[in-house]
Write a structure and sequence with these properties.
Elements lengths: L2 H18 L12 E12 L1 E7 L7 E2 L7 E6 L5 E6 L6 E6 L6 E2 L7 E6 L5 E6 L6 E6 L7 E2 L7 E6 L6 E5 L6 E5 L7 E2 L8 E6 L5 E6 L2 E6 L6 E2 L8 E6 L5 E6 L6 E6 L6 E2 L7 E9 L4 E4 L11 H11 L15 E3 L5 E3 L11 H11 L16 E4 L1
Antiparallel strand pairs: 1-2, 1-24, 2-3, 4-5, 5-6, 6-7, 8-9, 9-10, 10-11, 12-13, 13-14, 14-15, 16-17, 17-18, 18-19, 20-21, 21-22, 22-23, 25-28, 26-27
Helix pairs in contact: 1-2, 1-3, 2-3
């Protein structure tokens, strides 16, 4: 397609989009449909692991061992749970299927290993261990094979670690400054940065929002939410009748589950991400806590990068969808993601559907790049962004 025709086409389509503008654009959804919450409970005597939904059904017990099983965490695809257990004498890390089957021991060490969590791509587990005489953050392969590496290397407490949704950072709790603070570091332990740095509070147990823009954490008996750079902390529970801790975000980013003893014993509560509607969902006289919220993984969609309507080709219709999004019009495409929706690619990178140049926004430059591609012209994306027309698998 000649360049002049490309620009004429843009002008025509944009004029149509602006003429039709007026409908409200849909709210961008985070990747992931809210699934079950996994948590620990001693309601039957021994501490075991349970899952519960928000439909009012009673929790389901998925471990049944005479030893203590606790600190469960989901894999991002919802198929595995990693947890801590004393079933072989001391605290070790184990992995099992989501229904409690196929339990495999991952660590075998004379020291204590606990508080595990998966990386976004499911290949790595971060955990806490006292192997060098004090508590440190370690990483290992998700199958337990190969080196298990201390990445925090501080003489004081480091633990309660969690990967960011894109895998580029690890948030963790540390007392290296004399009190509990929330830090972030690179996955190899480099570039540690204090995010909280608030002398009046003990800050701990960080949890990333699904889009990576926020971190929930506990401080002095309440749940706070701050920006991922540590700015604008907000007390979202503001509860004087008990202690709230161990926050975890729902996969769609709209809610937070947490542990609280405000009812007289320890239970799992849920609330909106802003703190509204705080509700006890376990409500048992036993101790229930340390929740982690799993996601329901949709059937993967195989398509082409830039194929906004998932039709199997990149053409003018995809440009029109992008322009409709820019104009605030509906862009529903059936089983294909909504334009502007945050999605995961097969490589676990987080992208916005329709963002052809991966700059974090869906705007006119993306439509121009699609038209250039459709016209047989070169389109060079930045590093890490798929080529327009490249085959991708999205969730």
């Amino acid at each position: 397609m000649p360049i002049r025709l490309i620009f004429v086409t843009i002008a025509i389509i944009l004029s149509i989009g602006l003429f039709l503008a007026g409908a409200e654009s849909g709210q961008t959804a985070f990747p992931g449909v809210n699934g079950q919450i996994v948590f620990q409970s001693d309601r039957e005597g021994d501490r075991d692991i349970y899952v519960v939904s928000l439909d009012g059904a009673p929790p389901t017990k998925i471990t049944n061992d005479s030893a203590s099983d606790h600190d469960p965490a989901w894999s991002r695809d919802g198929t595995k749970i990693v947890f801590q257990s004393e079933r072989h004498g001391n605290s070790e890390i184990y992995i099992m299927d989501a229904d409690g089957g196929a339990v495999v021991r991952l660590t075998d060490n004379d020291s204590e290993d606990w508080d595990p969590a998966f990386s976004p791509d499911g290949t790595t587990i971060v955990f806490t261990a006292d192997r060098d005489g004090n508590d440190e953050v370690y990483v290992m392969n998700a199958n337990g094979k190969g080196p298990q590496t201390n990445i925090s290397n501080s003489p004081l407490f480091d633990g309660a670690a969690a990967f960011s949704p894109d895998g580029s950072k690890i948030a963790f709790t540390t007392s290296r400054d004399g009190k509990s603070e929330v830090y972030v570091m690179n996955p190899d332990g480099g570039n540690p940065v204090n995010l909280t740095n608030r002398p009046a509070t003990d800050d701990e147990n960080p949890s990333w929002s699904p889009d990576g823009s926020k971190i929930a954490y506990s401080a002095n008996g309440d749940i706070y939410v701050m920006n991922a750079n540590g700015s604008d902390p907000e007390n979202v529970t503001d509860n004087d009748s008990g202690s709230d801790n161990s926050p975890t975000w729902s996969p769609d980013g709209s809610m937070i589950a947490f542990t609280s003893d405000r009812s007289g014993n320890i239970d799992v509560f849920v609330m909106s991400a802003g703190g509204g509607g705080q509700t006890n969902i376990t409500n048992d006289p036993a101790s229930d806590g340390v929740p982690d919220w799993g996601r329901v993984t949709p059937t993967p969609v195989n398509t082409l990068w830039g194929d906004n309507d998932c039709s199997g080709s990149v053409g003018a219709a995809d440009t029109l969808l992008g322009l409709r999004h820019d104009a605030g019009l509906s862009t529903e495409t059936g089983d294909c993601p909504e334009i502007g929706e945050l999605i995961y690619l097969q490589d676990a990178s987080l992208r916005r559907w329709g963002d052809a140049d991966c700059d974090g926004a869906v705007a006119l430059p993306d439509s121009l790049k699609l038209l250039r591609y459709h016209g047989g012209l070169g389109v060079a994306p930045p590093a890490g962004c798929p080529l327009i027309g490249a085959a991708v698998t999205i969730e």
